[in-house]
Amino acid sequence: MKVSPDARPERWLSSLALVVIALISLGNVVTRYVTGGSLAFTEEFSVFLLVVLTFAGASVALRRNGHIRIGLLERALPAAPKKALIAFQWLCGAIVLGLITWFGARLTWEEYQWESLSPGLGLPQWWYIVWLPVLSAAMLVRQTQQTLDRLGGRLEDEP
User: Residue 50: how many CB atoms within 10 A of its CB?
Assistant: First the structure.
């Protein structure tokens, strides 16, 4: 039986981030047109939300097996070596996402301890940075789910 995988929390988060970015940008354009000045907070929030959107969207793409990859070698291999290749792909991704999670968590903790403030609004910097390790850990979970589904034959190799 083929599954229809989903990453609902990340899908909602990425959708919310996109809507807020659009509203902030629209508000800034209208304000600039009417008053000649812009809203100071828009760039800082937009950049932060764009990072959230990117990581949450990547997590959804991982779960749905929607990331771009070259499947030439996978299609050419027999079943056992193909499974080994899929496991190796998971290992490489897990190492990268594990490092991002680890160092992102360390950076978040340091920013919290140092009580660093954002340059634009003076908000605690860790409020922005904490999303990096959280969402990279979510990506690792989604990649693991995808890999297990692929190895178990529950997910098509080609999206």
Answer: 13
pTM given for the model: 0.88
What are the CB-based long-range contacts (under 8 Å, 24+) for 13-17? 13/52, 13/56, 14/52, 14/53, 14/56, 14/57, 14/60, 17/49, 17/50, 17/52, 17/53, 17/56
Predicted confidence at residue 70, as pLDDT, reads 74
Q: How far is CA 128 from the centre of its chain?
A: 14
Q: Residue by residue, what is the 3-state secondary structure of 42-79?
A: HHHHHHHHHHHHHHHHHHHHHHCCCCCCCCHHHHHCCH
Ranges of residues in the chain with a pLDDT under 70 are 1-4, 157-159
The residue assigned the tokens 């959107």 is 53
Eight-state DSSP code of residue 113: H
What pairs with residue 117 in β-bridges?
A: 124
Q: Angle between the 8-35 and 42-63 helix axes, to the nearest 10 degrees?
A: 150
Listed residue (65, 47, 50, 63) closest to 16, CA to CA: 50
